[in-house]
Structure formats: structure tokens, C-alpha cells
Design brief:
Order of helices and strands: HHEEHHHHHHHHHHHH
Radius of gyration: 26 Å
Main location: membrane
Keywords: Cell membrane, Membrane, Transmembrane, Transmembrane helix, Transport
Helix content: over 70%
Membrane topology: Multi-pass membrane protein
Number of strands: 2
Protein name: Sugar ABC transporter permease
Subcellular location: Cell membrane
Length: 304
């Protein structure tokens, strides 16, 4: 009996795909690939090509070479403030909001009382779009009827938190960090739950303090989460648009590259070639940050 079963198994061999199986696989793989090409890579390559042209979206397309980039870098005043603000977004979310989200995750992972309530409360802003966060920021930081001036009792000399270009970028960053912190907290909290408790116990037996255990044992095991959080932080910072547009259309100290792209492509000017050049610069900056971060993290992972 066992010999007969073995002969049957040998006779069957590997299962071959029928034409129907291949058709189903082709459809399941082909549709996502086509959607990715049509919605992601197609517009990306089109933007790169259009960045070397002069086109208003209606008339003929005229090739201008790198003239759009020359104008962008030398004769377009909003460009460099927007670059500075985008880099400031990356620095603030990466160096302030992300570590604070990690700190909250560590505290909640210790099992404090009402941890479920804190998780829900801190995660609640994540379900809001940045446009809604922008409207909430107006309610809080408004000069005449804002909650912050009322709390500080600045009725006689109210501070224009959103109108002063020296202050409004920091107020917007605080509002964006309020949303970003909850997202980071949930990601790190999920990572901390997966850490093997025996690692912490072994470190404690070796005489490591709680801080040493975290930085030398726990944090290295969170490398996959660190990669995800790092990439998300850069993307969130560089694609920011709706919060500043909801406040003042991205002007008067709140300029961002994404706002300049929108103003030039769908604004009154309809300079699609010039707006595409700004989009290519934003794409290059994004890829530079993300690729550099991923390479460093993957190298560190191999060494570990």
C-alpha cells in the first residue's frame, strides 16, 4: 500500500497551470500593474517630460530645455522659501514629533492605567485629514477669536499666530505634529508588543538599566518599524499641502513646493511646464531623502 501511494505521487508530479489559471493570474496581476502605470508612473514620466516645455494646457507644446529650471532657481522668489519650509517640516516631524510618538508608545507599553483611553485619544487626530487639522488650527490660533489668545488673556494685544510669518510656520508645524505623533505612536506600540520579553529579562540579569535595555536591546529590534516610520515621516513632510492651503493658501510664510505646483498648474497662470519643473524638484528631494534613509537602515541591518 505505501509503495502504491508513492508511485501515484511520483506519477502525478508538479501541478500544471491550465489556461484558465493563467488567465486569472494575468488578470489579478495585470490590473494592478496597469493601474500603477496609469496613475503613478505615467503622470510621473509625463511631468518629467513636460518640465522641459512651455505649455498652457491648451495650445501647442514648445520645447524650452532647462529654461524652466533656470527661472525656478534664479528668478522665482517663492521657490527658496518653499524649499526651506519643506526641509523645516522634515526636520520638525523627524526630530520632534517622531521621538515624542516613540516616547508615548514606550509609556503606554508599560501598561499604565487607562492605556486604552490614552491610545484612542492620541490616535484620534490621525483619522482627520490635514485640511480639517488646518481648520482646527484656525480655531485655536486665530488672532481675534482664537482659543490660545483667550487662554493667554491677550484681548488687549492679541498675537497674530497665523498672520505673522515669523510665527505661523511653527503653529502649523505644531498642528501637523499633533496628528503625526499619534500615527507614530501606534506604529511603535505595535512594534514594542512584538519584542521578545526574554531579551529584556536577559538584559536585566546582566545588570543593564531600563534606559540601557531600551537603547541597546529594544530599539535595535525595532529596525523594521524605524524604516517604516522614517519613510512615512519624509513623505508626510514633503507632500504637506492641505493644512497650509486651508489656512492662507500657502502664502505669507507658509509656502510649500506642493502649493507652488498647484498654483502654477491649475492656477490662473496655467504654466504646466513650469509647474512640472517644481514637481520634478519635489520628486527629486523626496527620493533623495527616502533612498538615503533606506540605504543607511539596510546597511545597519546587515551589520547587526
Amino acid at each position: 500500500m505505501p509503495l502504491t501511494t508513492a508511485r501515484r505521487a511520483k506519477r502525478r508530479g508538479p501541478r500544471r497551470f491550465t489556461s484558465r489559471d493563467l488567465a486569472v493570474i494575468g488578470v489579478l496581476l495585470g490590473i494592478p500593474v496597469l493601474l500603477d502605470l496609469a496613475l503613478i508612473w505615467g503622470p510621473t514620466l509625463a511631468s518629467i517630460g513636460l518640465s522641459f516645455t512651455n505649455w498652457d494646457g491648451i495650445g501647442d507644446i514648445h520645447w524650452v530645455g532647462i529654461d524652466n529650471y533656470k527661472t525656478l532657481f534664479t528668478d522665482y522668489p517663492p521657490f527658496w522659501p518653499a524649499v526651506r519650509n519643506n526641509l523645516l517640516w522634515v526636520a520638525f516631524l523627524g526630530l520632534v514629533a517622531t521621538p515624542f510618538g516613540l516616547l508615548l508608545a514606550v509609556l503606554l507599553d508599560k501598561g499604565v492605567r487607562f492605556s486604552r483611553f490614552y491610545q484612542s485619544t492620541l490616535y484620534m487626530p490621525v483619522v482627520l485629514s490635514l485640511a480639517i487639522v488646518g481648520f482646527i488650527a484656525q480655531l485655536v490660533f486665530s488672532r481675534d477669536q482664537g482659543a490660545l489668545n483667550a487662554i493667554l488673556d491677550n484681548r488687549h494685544d492679541p498675537v497674530d499666530w497665523l498672520g505673522d510669518p515669523d510665527l505661523n510656520i511653527w503653529m502649523v508645524l505644531l498642528a501637523a505634529a499633533w496628528r503625526h505623533t499619534g500615527y507614530v505612536m501606534i506604529l511603535y506600540l505595535a512594534g514594542l508588543k512584538s519584542v521578545d520579553p526574554s531579551l529584556k529579562e536577559a538584559a536585566a540579569i546582566d545588570g543593564a538599566s531600563e534606559t540601557q535595555t531600551f537603547f541597546r536591546v529594544v530599539l535595535p529590534t525595532l529596525r523594521p518599524v524605524n524604516i517604516i516610520v522614517g519613510v512615512i515621516t519624509v513623505i508626510e513632510a514633503l507632500r504637506a499641502f492641505d493644512i497650509v492651503y486651508a489656512i492662507n493658501h500657502g502664502r505669507n510664510g507658509l509656502e510649500l513646493l506642493s502649493v507652488l505646483v498647484t498654483d502654477n498648474i491649475i492656477g490662473e497662470a496655467s504654466r504646466i511646464g513650469f509647474g512640472s519643473a517644481i514637481a520634478v524638484v519635489l520628486l527629486t528631494v523626496s527620493l533623495g531623502f527616502i533612498v538615503t534613509y533606506l540605504v543607511q537602515e539596510l546597511r545597519g541591518g546587515k551589520k547587526g
